[in-house]
Amino acid sequence: MFEMNMRLISMLGIITVVVLIGLIIDYFYMVRKPVRLGLGIAVLGIMLGLGLTLSAVLPENHVYGTVFSEGRPTQKVVALTFDDGPYPPYTNQILDILQEYHVPATFFMVGKNVEKHPDLVLRVQQAGHQLGNHTYNHIDLLKANRKLMEREVDYTNKAIADITGQRPHVVRPPHGFRDPMVMETMADRRLKVVEWSVMSRDWTNPGVEAIVSRTINKVQNGSVILLHDGDGIASSASRAQTVEATRQIIRELLAQGYQFVTVDEILANLEETKK
Ligand SMILES: [Zn+2]
């Protein structure tokens, strides 16, 4: 849909100029009422800018290219995903719970934290969970130039591969933010961009009950659930609420008959049903 390499910021820049021109035309009555062409251009421009921005930040849309936020609604499966780790002791505690209930999950790891806690990375892999790339410094990719973006992704994949022998093939941009250049950079590396369909804003520590109810109320077949075992590169906030909520979410969804799968398994289902 859009020229590759376009950045959200440059598209918004162009639109801002168009809106200003529209307003000037309107101000000076260059096109007389009732047509008001200038104002029309300005309003359209603002709407387009808003649409482009929402497309960059909302997890479930494909305006800038295919992202994966949800599986097929025909199967009663859900995928748990944990971002920003590894981060002790919370990653360990989540792994204990996953082990207790025999539930797989997917961990989108921050490269800097990977290098700090290789033991945790190894434990995640050895327990059979999936590992994904969440950039090296947890940066906003919309503000990064291509070189920095590539470095952030490549360093993280290398850090994970050095420890586990396996290179992740899924990536979640921090905050889910992407634009055409982000999508192209990931496509060049054959990294699938994975977003989510259910979030509870667990990173704000709203209370265990809130995390659980916001999640359970939104879950449906094929949901990809976003949770956080880590806290960006700051690694300072407690994730105790998410740990306890994870236990309750698993219990509740198992009771409702859901099966837990990795992101790869949800994607495989998607691709199979497409054929
Ligand atoms: Zn994150």
Automatic annotation (TrEMBL):
Species for this entry: bioreactor metagenome
UniProtKB keywords: Membrane, Transmembrane, Transmembrane helix
Domain NodB homology: 76-261
Transmembrane regions: 6-25, 37-58
Any one GO molecular function term: hydrolase activity, acting on carbon-nitrogen (but not peptide) bonds
PANTHER family named in the record: GLYCOSYL TRANSFERASE-RELATED
Protein name from the UniProt record: NodB homology domain-containing protein
Pfam families assigned to the protein according to its UniProt record, in alphabetical order: Polysacc_deac_1
Database matches in SUPFAM superfamilies: Glycoside hydrolase/deacetylase
A biological process from GO: carbohydrate metabolic process
